[in-house]
């Protein structure tokens, strides 16, 4: 936020005191609940594309793309660049998914009922089934 607010102030959108900076930015560019409709809130896309900040970002993106194309491909199977082992990543992902599903109560109840109904239907399919080959073919 330290570089965003001076950018807007340079183009005439001064942040009022005791204002949430994120809400101010959204309202200034026209994305917030109380979006600006005056001349100060108009045409921020053009102002951005003509600004020196946009040129700096474009040159940084070009630099990153050049660095990325010069790197080796991941074909050699070297996984030392990752912070955790495969086991640790698998464990953390499993815990995250379990927490997500635990917090989504309607989804869990629907899964429980699907399993119960499936078990009943499969159980009734083989209920009082004889042991002969003809009994298996009749089901």
| Fraction in beta strands | under 5%
The portion of residues assigned to helices is 55-70%
- Please, how many domains? 2
Low-pLDDT runs of 5+ residues are none
Count of DSSP-assigned helices:
7
How would you characterize this protein structure?
The chain has 139 residues and is mainly alpha-helical. Helix content is 62%, strand content 0%. The protein has two domains: 4-70, no CATH class; 82-138. The longest helix is centred in the C-terminal third of the chain and has 21 residues, at 105-125. The mean pLDDT is 81.
List keywords for this structure.
2 domains; single chain
In short:
By secondary structure, the protein is mainly alpha-helical.
Topology (SSEs and partners):
Blueprint: H1 4-10, H2 21-29, H3 44-49, H4 52-70, H5 86-103, H6 105-125, H7 133-138
